Amino acid sequence: MPCTEILNNPRYKRITLHTLSIIFGFSSWMGVNAIFLEVPIIINSAPEGWKLSSYIVLIVQSGNIGVLLYNILQKYWPVKDAYLIYGMLGLGCLGSLLIGFLYDHTIELWGHERSLPLFIFTFMFALVACTSSVMMMPYMGRFLKQYIITYCMGVGIAGFISSILALGQGSGSTTDECVPSNSTESGFEPVQVPPRFSVELFFFIHFFLYLLSATAFILIVKMKKFRSEYAHITIRDGNDYTFKRHEKEGSDTDLQDSSKILYEKLNLISTTEYRYLMTLTGVLSIICNSVLPSIQSFSTLPYGTSTHHYSAIFSLMANPIADIIRLYTPERSVKGITCLVGVLAIPATYIFVIALMSPNPPLQDHFMGAFLSIAAWTIYTGMYSFINVSIITIFRQQGGKSLVYNGTTAQESINNILLFSF
């Protein structure tokens, strides 16, 4: 079936746009995740040694300067967000291509060798990741609400793909093999098993995924057929759009055919609820994106390295699954979200408690200990993703600027840097 005929069919058109939205979502945090997943391998040759992870965390947090510059730019010199997103996607493609060649190069600074190329590319990925919350995600808000959910699914799926690649590569493996040696009495010495494929190939695969993501966004913007999937909004520069309450007039066939789904019932909230959800976004971001991830190893490694690996994998699987569930469930009210946060506190508290009791948490030598640790991380990640997308869909209906404010709050770096320093 020709492409034009597919897009003329409303069902196929929506499936195509959902697919492109998912692929576009790949570009959000994919580069940053790739860096962290390769640290166990890169750290063996990096001059920073075990301090490398700390440097990378600070560089990633510094990417939030992009959020500040974006807000200043759109306040004084508004431009179309599509142009800025093109630039960010180009930055991601360039970084993922060059890092494959230069990740292990060092430069002497102040009398010491430094992994400067690696740090530069990490900052490039951080800019893409941090600004995605105020540019890419709000951009998808101009479409019907289900498309912003599939975009969020893409963010989670990209992390899952990267983790599967890292597991297949053997990143972070603690397995050694014995090889013949004349320097030991036994005639053998333990040598760490090398990765199944190189760091270069790992990053080149991500370069291909960035290209796919960039292509998906270009198609979303340039294919005029997709504009019939816009919500009933007035669009201005800088992701500044507002929803209309009156039925749209026009003779465009696509718009008329889609009219039954274009006019959403808006879930408008009060100023008090608006401030409450914005504050909740900031608090959840600090706890779920800074505090708990920083203690993950303390809550999982006492039960074994396999527990640590499986908790990471199942958590990444829970993210897109939660978004799929959200896609097919009714709109959540502010009270409903508050109740879900109360439920989220249960696995989060359990994780925090067993981390405090590390290195001797309860049920350390029992199967149930590992099972509960993995289950807590999986449930916590899935619920946080569900709650986060639910809040995003509510803010989306308050207008595009509300999504930008929400993204800015979620990416607030001051508290994260203070927590890291502490």
TrEMBL record:
<feature type="transmembrane region" description="Helical">
    <location>
        <begin position="85"/>
        <end position="103"/>
    </location>
</feature>
<dbReference type="Pfam" id="PF06237">
    <property type="entry name" value="SLC52_ribofla_tr"/>
</dbReference>
<keyword id="KW-0472">Membrane</keyword>
<comment type="similarity">
    <text>Belongs to the riboflavin transporter family.</text>
</comment>
<keyword id="KW-1003">Cell membrane</keyword>
<dbReference type="GO" id="GO:0005886">
    <property type="term" value="C:plasma membrane"/>
</dbReference>
<keyword id="KW-0812">Transmembrane</keyword>
<feature type="transmembrane region" description="Helical">
    <location>
        <begin position="337"/>
        <end position="358"/>
    </location>
</feature>
<dbReference type="GO" id="GO:0032217">
    <property type="term" value="F:riboflavin transmembrane transporter activity"/>
</dbReference>
<keyword id="KW-0813">Transport</keyword>
<feature type="transmembrane region" description="Helical">
    <location>
        <begin position="20"/>
        <end position="43"/>
    </location>
</feature>
<protein>
    <recommendedName>
        <fullName>Riboflavin transporter</fullName>
    </recommendedName>
</protein>
<feature type="transmembrane region" description="Helical">
    <location>
        <begin position="55"/>
        <end position="73"/>
    </location>
</feature>
<dbReference type="InterPro" id="IPR009357">
    <property type="entry name" value="Riboflavin_transptr"/>
</dbReference>
<feature type="transmembrane region" description="Helical">
    <location>
        <begin position="115"/>
        <end position="136"/>
    </location>
</feature>
<comment type="function">
    <text>Plasma membrane transporter mediating the uptake by cells of the water soluble vitamin B2/riboflavin that plays a key role in biochemical oxidation-reduction reactions of the carbohydrate, lipid, and amino acid metabolism.</text>
</comment>
<keyword id="KW-1133">Transmembrane helix</keyword>
<feature type="transmembrane region" description="Helical">
    <location>
        <begin position="370"/>
        <end position="395"/>
    </location>
</feature>
<feature type="transmembrane region" description="Helical">
    <location>
        <begin position="148"/>
        <end position="167"/>
    </location>
</feature>
<feature type="transmembrane region" description="Helical">
    <location>
        <begin position="201"/>
        <end position="221"/>
    </location>
</feature>
